[in-house]
Specification:
The structure is a single chain. The chain is α/β, with parallel strands linked by helices and 333 residues long. The strands form two sheets. It has a six-stranded parallel sheet, with helices on both faces. The chain has two domains: 137 residues, Rossmann fold, CATH 3.40.50; 173 residues, Dihydrodipicolinate Reductase, domain 2 (2-Layer Sandwich), CATH 3.30.360. The chain is 35% helix and 23% strand. The protein has eleven helices and twelve strands. The two termini are 34 Å apart. Bound molecules: nicotinamide-adenine-dinucleotide. The site of nicotinamide-adenine-dinucleotide has 29 residues, from helix 1.
Length: 333
């Protein structure tokens, strides 16, 4: 599988490194509108560099396009790649709303290509283990869940796009969508969403959010995300169950100890803080390897467009709740 990446910021750089460790595929080209980024990445991996996706598609015989562009540019890039007959891996969130995401899914279906989305938490061992424990009912019935994700200060990125609500969807769509996808995967459909955020300190920045979810199975979850914390990036979850409390805290040495090392922090040095892993095959490599294997085996990726769109629906419901002050039912839980 010959792969080309478009968008060479934080995630494009991460994906480019990952492809070096995945059998059955080869990174052959990269594209970024910042020529120095395209050039230095091309030099680093001995591949060809381009300014745009269109140029890369015209010059290369790719099998896969990996879209690591800011969220508001996902739709156009995914549709362009699909129409050119390429399989597409797209970073999360898939889209800013259901109609945008559905159009991307439809374009891939029309073209007969596969679409995979980067909900990487499903490849972090502590999250996989928590889901397995809950699925097996090892801790009895789940009552409530709390998740936390944040730190590292507000992300710096191309054109300050994270700070522009129309472009990124704010922290609700951008950051905590990781936890929303994990909770949908683990707990099933969401019936109601109530959310509150800080909004408006600097143009349309949204820096802190708390979202309450009621699931169809009766579980209540509180999902917290923040860029206000200038300390190290960290993640947490707590499952309160009839037989005990399951805790993961990436900043503590005592909770979920066997999985503690998987989530060390990065932050404050520019870009957007993302969880890192000391594993040789980190979760970002594992998610891309899963996608490449699905292409070889003709299987549907675990996180396809439909799965990713469910998380978008819940994030959009949270956005509506923040805007109206009322509880909101997701379009499709
Ligand atoms: N899975 C994760 O853990 C994770 C973490 C961070 C970001 N993300 C997601 O990854 C995506 C990218 O985020 P990022 O932090 O890497 O952004 P970034 O700003 O660091 O990088 C974006 C790059 O795209 C380039 N670009 C912009 N418009 C372009 C165009 N038309 N053609 C070619 N290149 C163009 C910019 O020059 C920049 O280099 C976003 O959707 C974000 O939500 C995912």
């Amino acid at each position: 599988m010959k792969v080309g990446i478009v968008g060479l910021g934080t995630m494009g750089t991460t994906h480019a490194a990952s492809y070096q460790n995945i059998a059955g595929c080869q990174l052959v080209a990269v594209a970024d509108i910042q020529p120095e980024r395209s050039q230095s990445m091309a030099d680093k991996y001995g591949v060809r560099g381009y300014a745009t996706l269109a140029e890369m598609l015209a010059a290369e015989d790719l099998d896969v396009v990996d879209v690591c562009l800011p969220t508001f540019l996902h739709r156009e890039a995914v549709e362009t790649a699909a129409e050119a007959g390429k399989h597409v891996f797209c970073e999360k969130p898939l889209a800013r709303n259901r109609s945008e995401g559905q159009a991307m899914i439809d374009a891939c279906q029309r073209a007969g290509v596969k679409l995979g989305v980067g909900h990487v938490l499903r490849f972090f061992p502590e999250y996989q283990r928590a889901k397995a424990i809950m699925d097996a009912g090892e801790m009895g019935q789940i009552g409530t869940v709390y998740t936390y994700r944040g730190g590292g200060g507000f992300p710096t990125a191309w054109q300050d796009w994270y700070a522009r609500y129309e472009w990124s969807g704010g922290i609700t769509l951008d950051l905590i969508i990781h936890d929303l996808d994990f909770l949908l995967w683990t707990l099933g459909d969401v019936e109601r969403v109530f959310a509150k955020s800080t909004w408006g300190r600097e143009y349309d920045r949204m820096e802190h959010v708390l979202v309450s979810l009621r699931f169809a199975n009766g579980v209540i979850a509180n999902v917290e995300g923040t860029w206000l914390d200038l300390g190290a990036f960290g993640t947490k979850f707590e499952f309160a169950c009839t037989d005990g409390l399951l805790i993961h805290d990436s900043t503590s040495a005592s909770a979920f100890t066997s999985y503690q090392l998987q989530s060390e922090s990065q932050g404050g040095n520019g870009g957007v803080a993302v969880p890192e892993s000391p594993l040789a095959r980190d979760p970002y490599t594992l998610e891309l390897e899963h996608f490449i294997n699905c292409l070889h085996e003709g299987k549907e990726p675990m996180i396809n467009g439909e799965a990713a769109l469910r998380a978008v629906d819940v994030a959009v419901a949270a956005q509506k709740s923040i805007a109206t002050g009322k509880p909101v039912r997701p379009e499709r839980g």
